Amino acid sequence: GAAINSTGKVIGITSQAHSDLLGTLGYIINISSVTNWVNQNKNNTAQTNTLLNRLVEFTKG
């Protein structure tokens, strides 16, 4: 998920969330703290999701 301000700008990304009968608590990482990492890695080739492939094979059998 993402944290969006009133003008529609992304200001944070969800790092963790917890939900129970009383409500939901989430933690947000300030987007400025990860901007450099995103810029350095946004053009990298995506990693293969091996867990998804295993799940698909499991549901076929």
From TrEMBL:
It comes from the Bacteria. This is Serine protease. The lineage of its organism: Bacteria, Candidatus Kueneniibacteriota.
